[in-house]
């Protein structure tokens, strides 16, 4: 990770303005990539719901029910990092180098591996901060005693004024965390894979992309959030399909806003 923050490629990067209709195109291309790899990406992405279920089980068994929803919703913060392999698959297919599921592990030999790890650690730190803040909001709402069961916790949350206050404040604060994560990472990982740039350059360009296309990027954020929610409903198993489609589509979104 030595030198990961530094800029390397001095070539200018021009941000393109796109329209809402372009999102249909990137989603179509995302489905095409998904169709090309088919069961390969489903097999790879089953890892995420399995890990999520294990973590959820651990949280329930450890008496930390109050962190279950923040953990599930917080997946959106680190999802761009977990989709790096999908970006690499789309990149290789674009170049006519597609071979199958092993393409995802091409990231391990990428010159940008250090930068990718640093960017991933930033998002992990943001997730950890969100979980800390979410727990603090719970403490302010209900005190230090953990909920005894899922039923008791649900009753306290949905039938008391303190519970509704926690919901409103928690969703508002969680939205701010998700917004920060989206702004700094919407094209950061694809850019790191595609060009020889540092982490600071990748973050700066991601912010510039959002600033140049605020409405379209807001719509893209809603599409991602809606997709992740739909994927999470059936015990997170839907993520095995939603995540690869959105991951592949994000690569093509990057190509739209930062073309060579």
Element-by-element helix/strand order: HHHHHHHHHHHHH
Unreliable spans are none
Could you report the average pLDDT, rounded to the nearest whole number? Answer: 85
State the end-to-end distance. 26 Å
Gyration radius from CA atoms, angstroms: 19 Å
Figure out the total of helices. 13
Oligomer: single chain
Large-scale geometry: globular
Strand count, sense and closure of the main sheet? Answer: none
Layout of secondary structure:
Layout: H1 20-37, H2 39-45, H3 47-61, H4 68-73, H5 75-82, H6 84-94, H7 113-142, H8 150-159, H9 161-185, H10 188-194, H11 199-212, H12 214-232, H13 239-257
Helix pairs in contact: 1-13, 2-13, 5-7, 5-9, 6-10, 6-13, 7-9, 7-10, 8-9, 10-11, 11-12, 12-13
Give a written overview of the molecule:
The chain has 260 residues and is mainly alpha-helical. The protein has one domain (20-257). 73% of the residues lie in helices and 0% in strands. The protein contains 13 helices and no strands.
């Amino acid at each position: 990770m030595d030198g990961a923050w530094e800029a390397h490629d001095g070539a200018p990067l021009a941000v393109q303005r796109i329209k809402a209709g372009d999102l249909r195109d990137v989603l179509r291309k995302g489905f095409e990539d998904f169709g090309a790899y088919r069961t390969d990406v489903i097999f790879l992405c089953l890892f995420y719901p399995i890990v999520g279920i294990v973590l959820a089980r651990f949280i329930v068994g450890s008496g930390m029910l109050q962190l279950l929803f923040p953990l599930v919703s917080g997946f959106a913060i680190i999802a761009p990092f977990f989709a790096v392999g999908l970006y690499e698959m789309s990149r290789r297919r674009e170049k006519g180098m597609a071979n199958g599921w092993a393409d995802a592990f091409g990231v391990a030999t990428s010159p940008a591996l250090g930068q990718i790890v640093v960017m991933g650690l930033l998002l992990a730190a943001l997730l950890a901060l969100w979980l800390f803040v979410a727990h603090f909001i719970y403490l302010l709402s209900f005190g230090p005693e953990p909920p005894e069961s899922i039923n008791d916790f649900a009753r306290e949350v949905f039938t008391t004024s303190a519970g509704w206050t926690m919901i409103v404040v928690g969703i508002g604060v969680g939205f701010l965390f998700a917004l920060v994560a989206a702004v700094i990472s919407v094209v950061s990982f694809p850019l790191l894979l595609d060009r020889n740039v540092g982490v600071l350059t990748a973050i700066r360009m991601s912010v510039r992309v959002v600033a140049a296309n605020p409405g379209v990027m807001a719509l893209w954020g809603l599409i991602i959030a809606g997709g992740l929610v739909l994927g999470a409903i059936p015990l997170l198993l839907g993520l095995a399909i939603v995540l690869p489609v959105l991951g592949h589509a994000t690569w093509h979104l990057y190509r739209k806003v930062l073309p060579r």
